């Protein structure tokens, strides 16, 4: 049994060495959580691309039945990304786009033992590097019930239980002055949104390209010939966009899952490339709406918020195929690392439970 345990340790150590050279932020240790005091740790993350993940593993070592912790992961701007309540452990990867200091805070539940030993591991990986960032020229929300109103700078989305869109977000990006030469075979162009609220976990959000762009301002006058001459009819934004509202489902290219505090990403490489090749002063407009019936969401717009949460389009160089393969390999290593940690922990727990009370107990950290 001892030899077997040492072999697992060597394999785990090899995994740590594999992950270390390309890690922007990496931590691995055990700490004690006393009483009900909150214990927080900060991790410096440099997000070089939208395909960036933070990896978090935590677990209570040798927990009693009633032992549990509350854990909160918070972004550099103070936004809660994910929380675990009453958990004995978790192994996860979370897609992020902010750079800076992330915090992970632990609080012992009232039913737990006086002192808990927590195994903690944190890492970060990015695939590709950002070459250009574009912020929206226009952000707005249109409402079915109030077609004469347009809410600028906000993105509030809602779809009724029967599937009818009640409110839809619109974003416009302009690429004037951007050279076509920035796009290469290995360039990926991503549009991303920060999710302030989603009515359910993994809420489906879809985007659709808007043909013909937006009409400004929110109301406009349209002349029409009638038998009595020319009359003028006033159209409001929802009515002006009615053709798109009715036909957007046929233009949806992607639907992605969103959750409160998270980020949702869409690959729009083909759309942007086509626009830049076809126009001298290219711009592109998308609608974003809830794809799930009876769902609602609030996304960060472009006012009264930190720019790190604005809707954004990023041009990213994905690098050589071999570099992408190495990046994906790190994700596999992280999953293996979590499995090995749990195997070693369970083995030590089983061994300790069979020892006599007078025999010193070997902990996981003794083995490591």
Kindly summarize this structure in a few lines.
With 368 residues, the chain is an alpha+beta fold.
The proportion of strand residues reads 35-45%
Termini gap: 15 Å
Low-confidence stretches are 1-24, 218-236, 356-368
State the domain count.
Answer: 2
Rg from Cα: 26 Å
Q: Determine the fraction of residues in helical runs and give it as a percent range.
A: 10-25%
**What's the helix-strand series?**
HEEEEEEEEEEEEEEEEEHHEEHEEEHH
Number of E-type strands: 22
Question: How many DSSP helices?
Answer: 6
Shape: globular
Structural class: alpha+beta
Main sheet specs: 12 strands, antiparallel
- Overall average residue pLDDT: 79
Characterization of the model:
The structure is a single chain. This protein has 368 residues and is of the alpha+beta class. It folds into two domains: 2-128 and 322-367, Sandwich (Jelly Rolls); 131-317, no CATH class. It is built from six helices and 22 strands. It has helices at residues 2-19, 237-240, 242-247, 269-278, 321-354, 364-367; strands spanning 27-34, 39-45, 52-60, 69-74, 80-87, 89-96, 100-108, 115-126, 129-134, 138-143, 150-152, 155-159, 165-174, 187-198, 203-209, 219-226, 229-236, 252-258, 263-267, 283-290, 296-299, 312-317. Strands 9, 10, 11, 12, 13, 14, 15, 18, 19, 20, 21 and 22 form a twelve-stranded antiparallel beta sheet that branches. The chain has a four-stranded antiparallel beta sheet with strand order 1-8-3-6, covered by helices on one side. A four-stranded antiparallel beta sheet has the order 2-7-4-5, with no helix packed on it. Helix 1 (2-19) packs antiparallel against helix 5. The chain is globular, with a radius of gyration of 26 Å. Keywords: Signal. Residues 1-25 form the signal peptide. This is GOLD domain-containing protein. Residues 38-124 form the GOLD domain.
């Amino acid at each position: 049994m001892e030899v077997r345990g040492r072999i697992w340790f060597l394999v785990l150590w090899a995994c740590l060495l594999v992950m270390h050279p390309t890690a922007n932020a990496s931590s691995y240790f055990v700490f004690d959580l006393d009483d009900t005091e909150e214990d927080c740790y900060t991790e410096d993350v440099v997000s070089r691309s939208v395909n960036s993940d933070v990896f978090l593993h935590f677990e209570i070592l040798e927990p009693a039945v009633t032992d549990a912790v509350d854990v909160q992961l918070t972004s550099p701007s103070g936004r809660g990304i994910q929380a675990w309540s009453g958990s004995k452990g978790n192994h996860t990867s979370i897609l992020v786009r902010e750079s800076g200091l992330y915090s992970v805070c632990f609080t012992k539940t009232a039913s737990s033992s006086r002192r808990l030993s927590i195994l903690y591991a944190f890492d970060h990986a990015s695939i590709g590097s950002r070459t250009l960032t574009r912020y929206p020229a226009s952000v707005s929300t249109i409402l079915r019930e109030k077609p004469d109103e347009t809410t600028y700078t906000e993105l509030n989305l809602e779809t009724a239980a029967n599937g009818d869109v009640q409110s839809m977000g619109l974003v416009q990006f302009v690429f004037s002055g951007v050279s076509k030469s920035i796009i290469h075979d290995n360039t990926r162009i991503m549009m991303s949104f920060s999710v302030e609220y989603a009515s359910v976990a993994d809420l489906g959000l879809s985007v659709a390209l808007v043909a013909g762009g937006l009409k400004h301002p929110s109301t406009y006058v349209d002349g029409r010939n009638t038998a009595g001459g020319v009359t003028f009819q006033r159209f409001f934004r929802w009515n002006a966009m009615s053709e798109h509202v009715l036909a957007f489902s046929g233009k949806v290219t992607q639907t992605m899952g969103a959750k409160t505090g998270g980020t949702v990403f869409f690959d729009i490489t083909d759309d942007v490339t086509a626009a830049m090749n076809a126009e001298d002063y290219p711009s592109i407009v998308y609608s974003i709406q809830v794809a799930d019936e009876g769902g609602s969401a609030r996304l960060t717009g472009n006012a009264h918020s930190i720019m790190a949460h604005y809707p954004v389009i990023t041009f990213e160089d994905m690098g050589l195929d071999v570099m992408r393969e190495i990046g994906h390999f790190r994700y596999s290593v992280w999953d293996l690392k979590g499995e090995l940690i749990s195997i070693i922990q369970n083995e030590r727990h089983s061994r300790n439970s069979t020892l006599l009370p007078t025999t010193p107990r070997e902990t996981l950290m003794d083995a490591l």
